[in-house]
Amino acid sequence: MPRRRNADFIRKADRPTDFHKSPDRSNRNLISPSDVPLSPTFRAHADAVADLAEQGFSEEEIFTLVVPKRTLARRHASKDLLTVEETDKLLRLKRIAALAQRVFGDADKAHRWLRKPKRELKGDTPLAFLASEAAARVVEEMLHRIEHGIFA
Fold first, then answer.
1. Cα–Cα distance between 3 and 23 in angstroms, integer?
2. Nearest to 31 by CA among 48, 45, 43, 47
């Protein structure tokens, strides 16, 4: 029996080249292809944080979930890049916000859903779960179930 490589165990939808496409393989992008990191050490410009504000995230949410206020101000002043970890957090919020907007068809509905406590999350908000990638996957799974009509 031939040996399987690690890549054989990764679902096609989870591979980096398919990261930006929806699960049904259509061309509806969750985030733009330019947002997909081209290397494992990809670092975004500090100005990219402004995109989150345009998606409805408050400054407090950005400072809590992505990068502290003083650190961001220092990065802006020195024209420095975000760290790899901060870039990951930035892309995570953009990915989930875009998915929520696609699922609900409206930015305001997506905004409200992310901030309303959920019984499935033991009273926490989906937004609070975006602090880590593993917890964000739980929110992503909830959104996929809603998208496919599975509410419970």
1. 28
2. 48
- pTM greater than the 0.85 cutoff: no
- Over residues 48-97, the pLDDT tens digits come to 999 999 889 999 999 999 999 999 999 999 999 999 999 999 999 999 99
Residue whose token pair is 């989930």 = 96
Contacts of 116 (CB under 8 A, 6+ apart): 125
Q: How far is CA 102 from the centre of its chain?
A: 13
**Beta-ladder partners of 21:** 29
**Start-to-end CA span in the chain (Å):** 41
**Per-domain residue ranges of the chain:** 44-147
Q: What is the DSSP string of 63-97?
A: HHHT--HHHHHHHHHHTPBPPHHHHHHHHHHHHHH
Query: Both tokens of residue 121?
Result: 């999350």
Q: Whole-angstrom Cα distance, residue 96 to residue 88?
A: 12
3-state secondary structure of 41: coil
Percent of the chain surpassing pLDDT 90:
68
